[in-house]
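If you are new to this repository, start here. Below is one unmodified record pulled from the training split, so you can see the exact layout before writing a loader.
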Amino acid sequence: MSNINQPRIFVAGHNGMVGSAIMRELIKQGFTKIITRTHDLLDLTDQKTVRDFFELEKPDQVYMAAAKVGGIYANKTYPAEFIYDNLLVQANLINEAYRVGVKKILFLGSSCIYPKLAKQPMREDALLTGALESTNEPYAIAKIVGIKLCESYNRQYGVDYRSIMPTNLYGIGDNYHLENSHVIPGLIRRFHEAKINNLSEVLVWGTGKPRREFLFVDDMAKASIYVMNLDKAIYEQYTKPMLSHINVGFGSDISIKLLATSIAKTVNFGGQIKFDESMPDGTDQKLLDSSCINNLGWRAEIDLEEGLAIAYQDFLNNFVNIRK
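And here is the target side for that same chain:
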């Protein structure tokens, strides 16, 4: 790819799992004008700091992969932080990018934006048709606001700010914290520690009956770059001004019970798996209808078996000495 006409790209949240995957894929595809800042250098919740950054760098594209994220426990424990921090980050990035003339933004949301009782698989037009799942409502509301910020700036200012809604992500660079992690990294760590400590069983939260869809993060990164660089006329052909987000999923789901069995096999844990039915399950099913992005020409490539093997190796390489 010629360096002369390349866009200057800011990846917000480049050290996170999603942001780092986008970085890897951008570099792989030959993009070289990539701008990053660590949290120590750029606090995205501070408007003046964000404004100064955009006035200095003036990027052409922004990937909004920065967010405060966590699993059921974290969402339940820190609801104020989840809504406040995410609202500030999104408002600051979108508004200050617009002020310096950024024409293209890709906002990354979450499948939790959809109603708790949404028809499965969940289509984009299920947004705002019912009550949200209570365990992650603050985070979901913040993400909905992010979509509507993009749409509102498009409608009023004629910019090209797009949104994609990924399903549950996992993979390289995941968070393996015992309390704040999502289900796959949490179970990888739990089964690994049970194996090395010769435990006879692992306790998994909930009944194991809910079904979830999982997408390897490198597939998500490819989808992000694909949607960002779609011709505007094609993007607008598949979306509406006030319904512009696009789902990004794997295409099928799996029960938590079967997921736990698959992770135990990947980790080579030979003990029993038991379920703590006193803990919350969350929604019964969360499966995205990804027909829109499939029709646009993108499909997931990495299946769960391959993805879990890569994720576990990444855990062994980089996180196995975690102690908290």
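Two things worth knowing about this chain: The CA atoms of residues 246 and 292 lie 7 Å apart. The mean pLDDT is 94.
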